[in-house]
Amino acid sequence: MSALLELRDLTFAYQDRAVLSQVTFSIGAGEVVGLVGPNGSGKSTLLRLALGLLASDQGELRVVGTPIVALSRKALARHAAFVPQDTVMEIAFSVRDVVAMGRHPHLGRFQPETPADEAAIRWALEATSTQALTERTLQELSGGERQRVILARALAQQATILLLDEPTANLDVAHQLEMLMLVRAVVRERRCALIAIHDLALAARFCDRIVMLSEGAVVALGTPREVITEAHLARYFRIQAKVRWEPELGGLLVLPRAPLPERGVPRQS
Amino acid sequence: MRRRQRALACALAGLGLVAAVLAGTMYGAVSIPWRHLAGIVAHAAGLPVTPDWPTWEATVLLHVRLPRVLVGLCVGGGLALCGGALQALFRNPLADPGVLGVSSGAALGAVIALYLGLAAHSVWPLPILACGSAGLTAFVVYGIATRRGQTPIGTLLLAGVAVGSLNAALTSFVLSLSLANYDIGRQLILWLLGGLDGRTWEHVKLVAPVTLLAAGLIIAYARDLDVLLLGDVHAASVGVDVVRVRRVLIIATSLVTGVAVAVSGVIGFVGLIIPHILRRLIGPHHQWLLPLALVVGAAFLVFADCLARALIAPEELRLGVLTALIGAPFFLFLLLRHRREGLL
Q1: B233 contacts A51? CB cut-off 8 A
Q2: Which of A37, A70, A77, A193 sits most deeply, having the most CB atoms within 10 A of its CB?
Q3: B216 touching A, CB under 8 A?
Q4: Any residues with CB less than 8 A from the CB of B17 and at least 6 apart, and which?
Q5: Does the beta carbon of B341 lie under 8 angstroms from any beta carbon of chain A?
Q6: Is residue B126 part of a domain?
Q7: Computed from CA positions of residues B203, B204, B210, B211, in that sequence, does the dihedral angle turn out positive or negative?
Q8: ipTM of the complex
Q9: Please, what CATH class does the domain formed by A3-259 belong to?
Q10: What is the CATH number of the domain that holds B283?
């Protein structure tokens, strides 16, 4: 299994505030990897580095075998696509227009759409069941529909790496499940996905592996069962939780019970 | 359906442009029959045509009307195109070529040139000072809003508004100084009201190459502008170099706006309303919207100039006054009609 996304000793600081330190892991074809950690643990920064929006201070990030620094913005966009938490668009582009924007890295400045572009757009619409929405505008859609359209936009890019930043945070439970099942379905064996996600139970249900970040460092890496443990949640998320493996369901039940006091903060008495 | 609307809009815009050029060249204090127009132009271009028109017709057409129309085309087209591009770049329906303070910067440079009497001897000092101070304004605004290579849109808009008001205050200051001298005060006020009267081939030589080159550059970024409307992160994730696109477009639109103000004074509303109307008609795709804005803006301003000459003849209404008089109510009408959906 060759790695599609490889991070080695990745280190990044804003000014003198360290955000990521020596992050190392890789994702292979067919894998869905969850990125979990409390707020401020560096999840978004990590995704921004993988998107080429930020440049790392040290270490290396390889995209489909090539160092990210050697890729142009368009070349990178042909390998990696992004789905954010929510998208606001005030101008009335149709759903088809928005999905077609995923073809931007494949098109020259004045080049019209080719049959290959049209095929990619059609495939993306079908894969996300958004064909019926093509003439609607983004504002008219519900949150779940909009997120599916944005996923279609990412799929139209025909990138092998999907980067998702809290893609389910604004969705109801049914749409959260629908979204993640879609991601699972499109990843299959050729693609991979890295999903920053707060919901630990969902992460455990849909991810092959979990990367747990705390204060910019990878503190646990492995299957959901290995990573999402009561001890880790207490230590890194500062919560008291009950975690139970359900063999029949093939999933974890995570019951958060109470926050624990912050480390290093002296108790008032 | 969209496709048919676009084809129709293109055809109408083309016809409008031809009609505007004909009206602008034929109509005036004295009319030149359309039969003579082609002959005079062909003759001037050195083609073997026997003159069958009075000489004054050729003089008026070649030295008064034609430069006036050409300057009008460039200014109107340039302002409308820049407005369309900036509305997308700032993701803000209120953006127009003046949004970065560039036009008020150009106006300041121009009134200084007029006040110091530099503009009395040659046509060049005024446009040069106007362009210079427009460029300086763009540079200062961009510099203020940029920190560590990042230029947030909100900061850029605020800096533009602030520097723009400073320019406007300084312009008023120069104007108030000039009132002591009636002639200069009058010149300043006329210029600030915007107009195309007395434009020469020198003005055409300044405004045409800059506008055409910059327009080509801006239109080349049409698809990037589409994607930028989804947001910076989206745009970057599909391969748009957001920082570079923004920098190139700000430089290009500042140039166009600077030369437009330098040759025609302050002409409002063209850059705001033309793109909005077109977006309603043909949709938001910039590869259609931008070229059409160029054509429609050009035709609109030349028509408006004809109207400005006709309405209170033999006096001329100031063009800047007229565009605002047409533009503001029309804009309000659009706003009322589309209150629910919003303008963009």
Answers
A1: yes
A2: A193
A3: no
A4: B73, B295, B298, B299
A5: yes
A6: yes
A7: positive
A8: 0.86
A9: alpha beta
A10: 1.10.3470.10
